[in-house]
Amino acid sequence: MNITQKVNDAPLVYEVVSQTRGVQQSDFDDGVEDPIDSEEVYELIRNINDPEHPLTLEQLHVTNREHIYVDDCSNRVLIEFTPTIPHCSMATLIGLCIRVRLLRSLPERFKVDIRIREGSHQSESQVNKQLNDKERVAAALENTYLLDVVNQCLATAA
Predict the structure, then answer these.
(1) What is the domain extent for residue 100?
(2) What are the residue boundaries of the MIP18 family-like domain, all occurrences included (predicted)?
(3) Strands lying side by side in the sheet with 68-71
(4) Is residue 80 predicted with pLDDT exceeding 60?
(5) Reported pTM
(6) CATH number where 144 lies
């Protein structure tokens, strides 16, 4: 994989609009149960860098709030993302970056599913299978080069 050779030389870049919910008094009280919601998950992944461009997944509209589903009671998270082009060769890497960010940030109790939005990629079923197979993910993260690329994408993620 050579990420210096771009698949999409001129992606659409969108303006980032900050929509945080604001700080509430209960955010500082350890005695108050603070469920994880889609807004919190979005904040974790929106600043992940795209592997091809000096832009974030939010700026490229690869991720957005409307495609994140969280059920705190059932300990489940579903992320759907949209590659910038239907034949994006970086789709698996982008999904791996999202998975690693959430593995490092969310409590272990959560089962995370990551999928390409239906109809947005020519190999969506194969990519979805790779991204949600524990053994494939573990094997990918054992690859030093691949882990370095993932860490670079996560480097400026808040």
Answers:
(1) 36-154
(2) 39-113
(3) 68-71, 76-81, 111-116
(4) yes
(5) 0.81
(6) 3.30.300.130
The pLDDT assigned to 153 comes to 95
**Is 148 inside any structural domain?**
yes
Split into its structural domains, the chain has a count of: 1
Are 121 and 88 in contact by the 8 Å Cβ rule? The answer is yes
Residue 77, both tokens: 């998270």
Please indicate, yes or no, if residue 81 is contained in any of the structural domains. Answer: yes
Residues near 17 by Cβ (< 8 Å), separated by ≥ 6?
none
State the pLDDT at residue 147: 96
**Alpha helices per DSSP H over 4-133:** 38-45, 91-105, 124-131
C-beta separation of 100 from 68 below 8 A: no
Residue 101 lies in a domain: yes
CB 90 within 8 A of CB 48: no
Asked if pLDDT for residue 32 goes beyond 90, the answer is no
**Dihedral sign computed on CA atoms, order 142, 9, 132, 136:** negative
